[in-house]
Amino acid sequence: MAQSLINDIIAILLKKRNNVKSSFKLIFEEAEEMHKKINIPILVDRTNARQRHRPNYNTNNPVDNFRISNYIPLLDDVIEDLKFRFSSDLFTILEITELIPSNILKKADIIDYTATKNTIAKYLSQFTNECASKFGNIRKKLFLLETAKNLVAFNHGQR
Question: Source organism's superkingdom (predicted)?
Fold first, then answer.
């Protein structure tokens, strides 16, 4: 779920990056309206032959200047940062942490282990040859744990 949301956000930002002129035009028009309301002109950064701390862009209008100098680098940085911070490896690790016994017991739907069984099956299927016997043992332990939870729930009148 979270991975698909992050992927959707990245896809939206990539779409804005691919259509940078039209996506920035909307933002700049809003900024232009605000500047008109407070009566401040939008100026282009001056160019300097000995510029050291930022690149000089040969643009004549503020729209191109801000798009090239600010918007495109910002979009690129945000996209790369999201890809780095939310890589598929992270979501694999998060999914595997669901298999820690204490995390299994903390789940609200403690009697239904379907999601846990599916996660176990997913990762064990990748290691079928090595883990075939262990999978049977885990299934037995989950079955016993599920049976014990059902007995506890039944004895406490929860069923």
Answer: Eukaryota
